[in-house]
From TrEMBL:
Gene3D superfamilies: D-Amino Acid Oxidase, subunit A, domain 2, FAD/NAD(P)-binding domain. Its EC number is 1.14.13.2. It is an enzyme of class 1 (oxidoreductase). PANTHER family: P-HYDROXYBENZOATE HYDROXYLASE, TRK SYSTEM POTASSIUM UPTAKE PROTEIN. InterPro entries: FAD-bd, FAD/NAD-bd_sf, RIFMO-like. Residues 3-341 form the FAD-binding domain. GO terms for molecular function: 4-hydroxybenzoate 3-monooxygenase activity; FAD binding. This is 4-hydroxybenzoate 3-monooxygenase. It comes from [Brevibacterium] flavum. Keywords: FAD, Flavoprotein, Monooxygenase, Oxidoreductase. It holds the Pfam family FAD_binding_3.
Amino acid sequence: NHVPVAIIGAGPAGLTLAHLLHLQGVESIVFESRTRKDVEETVRAGILEQGTLNLMRETGVGARMEAEADHDEAIDISINNERTRIPLTELTGHKVAIYPQHEYLKDFIAKRIEDGGELLFTTTVDSVENYEGDLAKVTYTEADGSSTTITADYVIAADGSNSPYRKLITEDGGVRARHEYPYAWFGILVEAPKTQKELIYATHPEGFALISTRTDEIQRYYLQCNPDDTPDMWSDDRIWEQLHLRADSPGITVSEGRIFDKAVLRFRSAVTEPMQKGRLFLAGDAAHTVPPTGAKGLNLAVADVAVLAPALVRALKKKDTGLLDSYTSLAVPRIWKAQHFSYWMSSMLHAVPGEDHFATQRRFAELRSVLESQSGQRYLAEQYVGRDLPRFEV
Ligand code: DHB
């Protein structure tokens, strides 16, 4: 049994890659340890950059996103209850869409199934071997307990930030750069009308709050919290008190309703270099993690596979591995720029624990310096809407 490309993980990186390969006539098999229901229901971030939107549209998976997503032309930044609008589209010509990651995944899963692609849920990969030889070997176990070994020209580990395959690269001369942040987000889903159409990134001496949305009836809010907080430390009363304190501003009152989901999101940065060894490649969170501020994670995963897909097609169809050999060097500069943007926004918007008056006022001043300058606003907007995806002929 042989497959050209074996993909571990049915997240944004794995599913997008399988779809792009299929469009170029290269078949793959995708292994996912979780159930389809789990994958389709896990709550994650919700911003698609213009490049990601374009890719969905151009490759025939954009119809539902087009119809259902909120397409936003601005964000608001609120400092100590004073709001400034950043007109993203006016400044950059680009928009973003609020379309949750699990909706993105649903669309790609449906498309993969419609196209007859092999997508195995509840299937664990037990081993990847011989990836430095002339054919890799992948052994996997399905839900019924049956175990199979196949050969693959290439294996892509797109199995998220705990990928066990990353070690195969870092243990042997690779580098894993990490950064921990002294804060986290407490995220809630609420049955409430929209506070306003566009997102509000709010900062306050007490910390950060983000007013996001899901539908006309369901809203997504986040509050800065401590990394070791648990949901039971956040009563509904405390949540509403802190959301109003941090994110209300003249003319805007955070809309309230029944809270039906509470979760703590960790803040981490990590970058793995290189992202490849022999026939094994890392994509998405398996290679790099960004903190949630700015919601770059999915978009970075899509950017990885925008390089990897044409590179694999050239290698498999034309026996030309030039692009594949350059995968890490093509992907990494963008990853570091996204790290920088997520870190920078996080540092301006969050209060470090025990922050003194000097530190609070300095970060407010940094943010105001950006917002009061046309070029500062444009810089922030350009980073927020993201860069075009790399394009390669195959
Ligand atoms: C959302 C998450 C983010 O990290 C962000 O920057 C904007 C929106 C969200 O989940 O809606």
